[in-house]
Amino acid sequence: MDSKKNIFVIYAQEDNDTMLHLLRHLKPLKEAENLSIWYDDPIQSGQQWKPQNESRLGQADIFLLLV
Predict the structure, then answer these.
(1) Local structure of residue 2 (DSSP, 8 states)
(2) How would you write the pLDDT of the chain (67 residues) with one tens digit per residue?
(3) pTM of full prediction above 0.70
C-alpha cells in the first residue's frame, strides 16, 4: 500500500463554505487514495496567519490554498 499523503487546506473565513464543499467531494478519496486532510481555523481578513498545529504544516505533502 502507498504511504499516506497529507493535505493541508488553508482558507479565509469567507471561503468556509467552499472549503466544506471541497471536503465533501474529497471524502470518497480519503480511504481509496490513503489521504489525510487537515485544516486550521479560517483566517480573518487582515489577520496574520499562524497554523494551530505547526507540526502538521511541516508534514504536509500537498497544500490547498483557497483564494
Answers:
(1) P
(2) 568 899 999 888 889 899 999 999 999 988 899 999 988 766 666 766 666 566 677 889 999 998 8
(3) yes
